[in-house]
Predict the 3D structure of the following.
Amino acid sequence: QVQLVESGGGLVQAGGSLRLSCAASGSIFSINAMGWYRQAPGKQRDLVATITTGWRTYYADSVKGRFTISRDNAKKMVFLQMNSLKPEDTAVYYCHMAKNNGLDYWGKGTLVTVSS
């Protein structure tokens, strides 16, 4: 089993910054990629950013240039630095792990609210 615990969400004014953290524990091996998704009220869950075990990164167009994903393998953590936040970034942010066997794991999410 895998446990993913997010932290770092909160309320911030537009233009501000937040750093999300995801701590992984359990059967954390044979990982393909880890990343962040978000879900705004009444909308589907969308991919925000991913980082593979080969350190390749991917960003949704809406966050390119503003968000940065990183990982610390020793601490078994993934981070999302979010700068220049906009009200449309308001959502619950979920940590995600994709394993090589095709299984997916999710955290419970952390709420980010950006006020205008």
Notes: The mean pLDDT is 96. The chain has no helices and eleven strands.
